[in-house]
Design a protein that fits this description.
Blueprint lengths: L1 H4 L1 E3 L2 E3 L15 E2 L5 E3 L5 E3 L10 E2 L10
Parallel strand pairs: 3-6
Antiparallel strand pairs: 1-2, 4-5
Length: 69
């Protein structure tokens, strides 16, 4: 996963101080006008279609709100 998200140069990966720890599940969800996920609280994602292995996880960003702190 590191090689997908961080720069590799001179034999080193340049990773932020917190690494991937700051990324929640929403980091792995992309936008679509025909999503396969919904959320009511911004933390729990629910499938609305069958999702096959390797398929992209999507949500309509216009209906997505991050949880309040």
């Amino acid at each position: 996963m590191i090689h997908d998200f961080y720069v590799h140069k001179g034999g080193y990966y340049y990773v932020s101080y917190n690494g991937l720890d700051l990324n929640d599940i929403s980091f792995f969800v992309n936008h679509s006008k025909k999503p396969n996920l919904i959320t009511n609280d911004g933390e729990t994602f629910i499938t609305i279609k069958e999702i096959v292995a390797g398929e992209e996880l999507t949500i309509d960003y216009e209906t997505y709100e991050e949880p309040s702190v």
